[in-house]
Amino acid sequence: MELDLLKALNADRAGRRAAILVTDMADGSQRLIRKSEDFSADPLAEDLEKRFRSGKSGLVSHETGEAFLNVSLPAPRLVIIGAVHISQALVPMAEIAGLDVTVIDPRTAFATEDRFPGGALKAEWPEDVLKEAPLDPFTAVAAVTHDPKIDDYPLMQALRTGCFYVGALGSRKTHGKRLERFTEAGLDPALFKRIDAPIGLDIGASSPEEIAVAVLGSTIAALRKAPGAGS
After folding, report:
1. Residue 165: which domain range?
2. Residue 22 in contact with residue 31, Cβ under 8 Å?
3. Would you call the peptide bond into 198 cis, given omega within 30 degrees of 0 as the criterion?
4. Do residue 44 and residue 129 come from a single domain?
5. How many CB atoms neighbour CB 191 within 10 A?
6. Which positions fall inside the XdhC Rossmann domain (predicted)?
7. Is 231 a domain residue?
8. Of the residues 55, 72, 89, which one is the last residue of a structural domain?
9. 175 and 162 in one domain?
């Protein structure tokens, strides 16, 4: 690999940016494709989009031969706002699924090491935590506190930064009031359709554990399925 390409790829990895190194198998030439850039005119556009979704490297065929796509994606993260019962069930499930999980809650009655062992817990306000670890398109946000003072800021930031999944607990009435607050805060209403509310897959979940399964299912679907691919 050329030094300039290697430096660029390492910079993308450090900045949590998705990229694919394309190697032409006939002549060994290489180029770097970034997800944040428009690659719709590329002859491998369809394959590139699929690989960005799956995260899997591999050999592909095209009109003039074959190319190897070496995929570099940031590790997907799940930021859970609220150290509640749902979160207690969701954390180990999400970690098993390969997500890097953080739980944020400033309420010391909920945010305790006994309830959340293992280092995922941040007993601070979301504004402070996200200042040090900003959200990005490879992060999912699930807000489950029912408290606007805690939930609203990370939800709005998730929409602004293009997080791949944004979910919020609450009834449709609660969500309607939430959107009124977001509008008053100057958020573009066009972004509101990206919020999964009520949160999680519609599987009739009732217990905290079942809701956690529903949330994880929605998160994985948002990460892996192309928009409009169906259920």
Report:
1. 77-224
2. yes
3. yes
4. no
5. 15
6. 78-217
7. no
8. 72
9. yes
Average pLDDT over the chain, rounded to whole?
92
Phi, psi of 167, rounded to the nearest 5 degrees: -125, 150
Beta strands in 74-208 (DSSP E): 77-81, 100-104, 121-122, 139-143, 165-168, 195-196
**The pairing of beta strand 65-72 with beta strand 19-24:** antiparallel
Query: pTM score, two decimals?
Result: 0.83
Residue 64 pLDDT greater than 80, yes or no? no
Contacts 24+ apart (CB under 8 A), 155-160: 155/81, 155/182, 155/195, 156/182, 156/185, 156/187, 157/130, 159/187, 159/191, 159/192, 159/194, 159/195, 160/187, 160/191
Token pair 């979910």 is at which residue? 167
User: What's the CA gap between 120 and 80, in Å, rounded?
Assistant: 10
Residue 230 within a domain: no
Band (pLDDT 50/70/90 cuts) for residue 57 is: very high
Query: Which residue has 């390969």 as its token pair?
Result: 98
Q: Retrieve residue 171's tokens.
A: 């009834």
| Closest by CA position to 82, among listed 163, 155, 157 | 155
Instruction: Let me know whether 148 and 64 are in one domain.
Output: no
